[in-house]
DNA sequence: CGGATTTGACCCGA
DNA sequence: TCGGGTCAAATCCG
């Protein structure tokens, strides 16, 4: 979920703050994003139904799908309302169970462990707790994994994929949070700022799909996406961003209506302008920025998890566990599912 | 075949 | 000496 990664960095952007955001702020941010998503869904619903009026099956299908999306937002907002820090303060931890989401796991968790001692002097570190440790919009390459004393889970070490070619110093260390939460949370410690931010013209065309290893190693940017704008530099005029955002929302609206119409008309591809359904060419979304990993779920980490509730990023992060400090035996896949 | 991941070994600061 | 962090050869994978 894109909102998760945005949340993870929303209080920082390029000017990184260190330490986790206050739970109340995170909660408010989640509610704000969900509310916005709900509103946009309603607008999309109105636009789609207007565009598909009188088209029988297509109109009915659009009504159903968008109704379900709207309902999902409503449920999430209700969950967040019952999970508000104020509500949590009123209700003891042993209160009746409710559906738990990765996000509310994050906000219900107490203060994260104290920041780690920096190995190098003056190297700033940013620590966050997230259910999606890799889904932060950057491409990472794993260079090590180690079991850490007094922890139940190994720590993984990642470097920016542009570490070599652009001398990007960014690194992050990911470790599953201790505890017996059904939904795993990960401590992610970022060190150094990214130095690999390319000008938009240099960015790979995310619409080309999988373009081999080179393309896969490149950061994925979503045109108009706010965290991308942040990433592209603090020198961006903030007032311009407001205009850009309005234009982006209008573009999103047109794109969604067009793609929905294409889907309902049985079209399979939307990336060819000649094949578009009239509103404009629609690019298939880029693959989620997930660092490839061949790790398999481990017996400790995976127990009791509902895989369907997790995105690929989460699933890939269940590391195998072994006995010695650095190596972790690969479990039999057949025993895991 | 090239790039990504794994993992045993090594480095180095406390 | 211990343990976190990194290196680099082996291995995996598309």
TrEMBL record:
Pfam family, one: WRKY
UniProt keyword terms in alphabetical order: DNA-binding, Nucleus, Transcription, Transcription regulation
Gene3D superfamilies (UniProt xref): WRKY domain
Predominant location category: nucleus
GO cellular component, as recorded: nucleus
Membrane-spanning parts: none
Compositionally skewed regions (Polar residues) per UniProt: 1-15
Region (Disordered): 1-25, 89-131
Biased composition (Low complexity): 89-98
InterPro entries given in the database record: WRKY_dom, WRKY_dom_sf, WRKY_plant
Cellular location(s): Nucleus
GO molecular function: DNA-binding transcription factor activity; sequence-specific DNA binding
Keyword Ion transport: no
Boundaries of every WRKY domain copy: 134-197
Protein name: WRKY domain-containing protein
């Amino acid at each position: 979920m894109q909102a998760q990664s945005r949340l993870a960095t929303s209080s920082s952007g390029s000017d990184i703050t260190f330490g986790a955001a206050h739970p109340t702020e995170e909660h408010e941010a989640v509610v704000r994003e969900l509310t916005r998503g709900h509103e946009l869904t309603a607008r999309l619903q109105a636009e789609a139904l207007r565009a598909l009026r009188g088209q029988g099956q297509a109109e009915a299908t659009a009504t159903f799908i968008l109704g379900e999306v709207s309902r999902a937002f409503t449920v999430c907002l209700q969950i967040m309302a019952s999970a508000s820090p104020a509500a949590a303060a009123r209700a003891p931890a042993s209160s009746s169970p409710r559906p738990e989401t990765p996000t509310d796991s994050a906000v219900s968790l107490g203060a994260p462990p104290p920041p780690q001692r920096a190995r190098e002097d003056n190297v700033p570190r940013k620590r966050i707790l997230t259910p999606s440790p890799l889904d932060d919009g950057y491409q990472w390459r794993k260079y090590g994994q180690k079991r850490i004393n007094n922890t139940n889970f190994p720590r993984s070490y990642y470097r920016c994929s542009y570490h070599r070619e652009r001398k990007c110093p960014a690194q992050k260390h990911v470790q599953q949070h201790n505890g017996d939460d059904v939904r795993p949370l990960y401590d992610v410690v970022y060190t150094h700022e990214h130095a690999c931010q390319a000008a938009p013209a240099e960015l790979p065309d995310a619409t080309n799909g999988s373009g081999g290893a080179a393309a896969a190693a490149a950061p994925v940017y979503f045109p108009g996406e706010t965290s991308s704008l942040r990433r592209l530099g603090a020198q961006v005029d903030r007032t311009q961003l407001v205009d850009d955002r309005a234009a982006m929302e209008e573009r999103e609206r047109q794109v969604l209506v067009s793609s929905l119409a294409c889907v309902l008309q049985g079209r399979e591809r939307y990336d060819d302008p000649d094949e578009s359904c009239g509103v404009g060419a629609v690019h298939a979304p880029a693959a989620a920025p997930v660092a490839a990993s061949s790790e398999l779920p481990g017996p400790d980490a995976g127990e009791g998890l509902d895989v369907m509730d997790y995105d690929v990023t989460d699933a890939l992060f269940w590391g195998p566990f072994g006995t010695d400090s650095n190596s972790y035996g690969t479990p039999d896949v057949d025993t895991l599912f």
